[in-house]
UniProtKB/TrEMBL annotation, chain A:
Annotated protein name in UniProt: Branched-chain amino acid ABC transporter permease
Cited Pfam families: BPD_transp_2
Membrane topology field: Multi-pass membrane protein
Record organism: Streptomyces canus
Family note: Belongs to the binding-protein-dependent transport system permease family. LivHM subfamily.
GO cellular component, one term: plasma membrane
GO biological process: amino acid transport
Keyword annotations: Amino-acid transport, Cell membrane, Membrane, Transmembrane, Transmembrane helix, Transport
InterPro entries documented for this protein: ABC_transp_permease (IPR001851), BCAA_transport_permease (IPR052157)
UniProtKB/TrEMBL annotation, chain B:
Keywords, in A-Z order: Cell membrane, Membrane, Transmembrane, Transmembrane helix
Subcellular location: Cell membrane
GO CC annotations on file: plasma membrane
Protein name as annotated: Branched-chain amino acid ABC transporter permease
Ranges that cross the membrane: 16-33, 39-57, 69-86, 98-118, 125-143, 185-204, 234-255, 271-296, 326-348
Gene Ontology molecular functions: branched-chain amino acid transmembrane transporter activity
Main location: membrane
Length: 296, 365
């Protein structure tokens, strides 16, 4: 039972990190209707900046720099690429983000090479023991940080003028523009926020017990895609639930791997995708996604 | 439709000559090129077949797929399983190799069909990410189903033999030129590519093609006009998987060994890059993009000494593979922003002249 509780808690922590990534993904989709396949590379960029700087300027400034760096990269992508597109087909823009992803990932993986970079976090491999349950400090930090950020984000989304502008733009871009919402600024803000959230997620994807920032980190970040999809692409609640679901499933599949050997090794990495396929079979728009209604 | 009518008639005869000349050159190449270039050309042909498949799906029907690598893998491994004789301790059915190739393509199609509950109902990014799952499931199976796939080390590919001719490295002298596997496969590749291209062109120009474009441009209008949307989406998905399976078989024959690492997410992205660069929705676009994306790394590898910034792998500079990824990544972005319609669209626009009206990306030409 104690292992089950441990696995569950670890899964929730991991899931909250996925939720952070998925949230950024959903924010971009809501603000601009673009599916951002370059999201994993934004995350890698944030993690890389933190990893490079932490030796010189200390961990917390480096983390801030990483967040700012990823936000800047996101905003730059929006400004230099997305804004230049004059067509109306959003699926074509999704393919552009794939091109951006190829560029950014190639550059970052070339810089990282075969190294495993540490991010210099203060938690190390310390473990907290609560009776029979032991939890790594990093996992607790991940959960707390993700919970705080998500709450702050949701509050801002609801109550600040920035959030109102973004929701208005998502509702109807044209009306919002007529009401004086500056759509360019809204979408650039969305990209920057998504980048910042991804940079925080990068930290928690690479701390103990994972070895550090490496090429494969972007594959781990990809698991936020199924999280966003199974929750429903246009729903922030969906991103949270999806993230937690994916995290817990992955953790369970990894934790009980020894009982599932007939399915092969490394099942944990596969679990998020299996869950997504299963849910899409039942609900094609995801758990919380709005069903597409069209008036002709 | 009206655009098709007002298109100026092209001089048919000069185009026929052009095709004939191109065909003769392609047929003659094995007599002149060395093995490196023949193999590069074969990769391009296999990529072209796969790209035609994904262009039917993503370009013509508007269904984003990131799972193309999975179906390539099904084709490649399917061929191995059907054709191998089990001598290396792995499962092999020992069927005649041509039959194995056909069955591999059918299995890839069946795999696409199994996915039809999802491919028929979803579109856009949802489908893109759902198909992402296929790549990861495929990798998992490839690494773990050791009896079928040989695990991480992969398995050897038995050479194709057809009408008593074996496409292996036993040399055969044709007009004083030694023919190895690359030379022989070159012709098989040409035949397959030509057949695949003609079939796809037929699909695009006929009734199904109109229906597919209608689904892409306006799903509801297509449904109202009586196009069974879900069935068409699923059917195109199956067809595109079969093209991918065929490309996988050809790739396996060229590589002579299949390894799971090759069939990753990068490969899927490469195929998407091909059709975007070449031109969405047309056969010629798929072929042009495939040639561009698959020859680029080979060119850069071959001439890495002569190029600035590019250096041999492992020497610290930008390796040719990376350099080519930069180039086609940038090409994807630039083409979408500045050349809607891709390379082929740009060429067609020059041909027709600047004032004959807009050419929309993906329009059948």
């Amino acid at each position: 039972m104690s292992t089950f509780a441990e696995i569950l808690l670890n899964g929730l922590s991991l899931g909250s990190v996925y939720a952070l990534i998925a949230l950024g993904f959903v924010v971009i989709f809501r603000a601009t209707e673009v599916v951002n396949f370059a999201h994993a590379s934004l995350l890698l960029a944030g993690g890389y900046v933190t990893a490079v700087l932490h030796d010189d300027i200390g961990f917390w400034p480096a983390l801030l720099a990483g967040i700012a760096g990823a936000a800047l990269v996101g905003a730059a992508v929006e400004f230099l690429v997305m804004r230049r597109y004059r067509g109306t087909d959003h699926s074509v823009l999704a393919i552009v983000t794939i091109g951006v992803d190829i560029l950014l990932t190639t550059e970052l993986t070339r810089r990282i090479g075969t190294d495993v970079l540490t991010l210099g976090d203060p938690w190390g491999d310390a473990v907290l023991r609560l009776g029979p349950i032991s939890l790594a400090h990093t996992r607790i930090a991940a959960f707390v940080a993700a919970a705080l950020l998500i709450t702050a984000f949701l509050l801002a989304f609801r109550y600040t003028s920035w959030g109102v502008a973004m929701r208005a733009a998502a509702e109807s871009a044209e009306t919002a523009a007529l009401m004086g919402v500056r759509l360019g600024r809204v979408s650039m803000g969305a990209w920057a926020v998504a980048g910042g959230l991804a940079a925080v997620a990068a930290l928690f994807l690479t701390v103990f017990p994972t070895p550090g920032l490496e090429r494969a980190t972007s594959l781990a970040a990809l698991k936020a895609f199924p999280a966003a999809i199974l929750g429903g692409l246009d729903s922030t609640t969906g991103a949270l639930v999806g993230g937690l679901l994916v995290g817990v499933t992955e953790s369970l599949a990894t934790g009980y791997q020894s009982d599932l050997t007939f399915l092969g090794r490394g099942l944990g990495d596969l679990a998020p995708y299996l869950v997504m396929v299963a849910i899409l079979l039942i609900r094609p728009a995801g758990l919380f996604g709005t069903k597409e209604l069209a008036r002709v | 439709m009206s655009e098709v009518l007002v298109k100026p008639l092209r001089p048919v005869r000069s185009r026929t000559y052009l095709w004939a000349a191109g065909g003769v050159v392609l047929l003659a190449l094995p007599f002149y090129l060395d093995r490196f270039w023949l193999q590069a050309g074969l990769f391009a042909m296999a990529a072209a077949i796969g790209a035609i498949g994904i262009n039917l799906l993503t370009g013509a029907t508007g269904q984003l797929s990131m799972g193309h690598a999975f179906f390539l893998a099904v084709g490649a491994y399917g061929y191995c399983v059907f054709a191998a004789d089990g001598g290396d301790g792995l499962t092999g059915l020992g069927l005649p190799t041509w039959l194995a190739a056909v069955l591999a393509v059918l299995v890839a199609g069946a795999a696409g069909g199994l996915f039809s509950p999802i491919s028929g109902r979803l579109s856009g990014a949802y489908l893109g990410i759902a198909t992402l799952a296929l790549v990861f499931i495929g990798q998992h199976v490839m690494f773990n189903a050791h009896d079928l796939t040989g695990g991480a080390n992969g398995r050897d590919v038995p050479p194709l033999s057809l009408f008593g001719l074996t496409f292996d490295d036993r040399e055969l002298l044709v007009a004083a030129v030694p023919f190895g596997s690359a030379e022989k496969l070159w012709y098989a590749g040409l035949v397959l590519l030509a057949a695949g291209a003609l079939f796809a062109r037929g699909v695009l120009r006929g009734r199904p093609g109109r229906a597919m474009n209608a689904i892409r441009d306006h799903r509801i209008a297509a449904g109202v006009l009586g196009v069974p949307v879900a069935r068409h989406r699923a059917a195109v998905f199956v067809l595109s998987s079969m093209y991918a399976g065929l490309a996988g078989v050809l790739l396996a024959l060229v590589f002579q060994r299949t390894v799971p690492d090759y069939f990753g997410i990068t490969l899927s992205l490469e195929y998407l890059a091909m059709i975007v660069i070449g031109g969405l929705g047309s056969v010629s676009g798929a072929v042009a993009g495939a040639v561009f994306v698959s020859l680029l790394p080979q060119l850069l590898t071959r001439y890495s000494d002569a190029l600035p910034l590019v250096s041999a792998p492992g020497t610290g500079g930008i390796a040719p593979g990376e350099a080519s990824r930069y180039l086609y990544g940038a090409a994807v972005v630039l083409v979408v922003l500045f050349l809607p319609g891709g390379l082929v669209g740009a060429a067609a626009r020059r041909h027709v002249g600047p004032r004959s009206g807009e050419i929309h990306p993906g329009e059948e030409r």
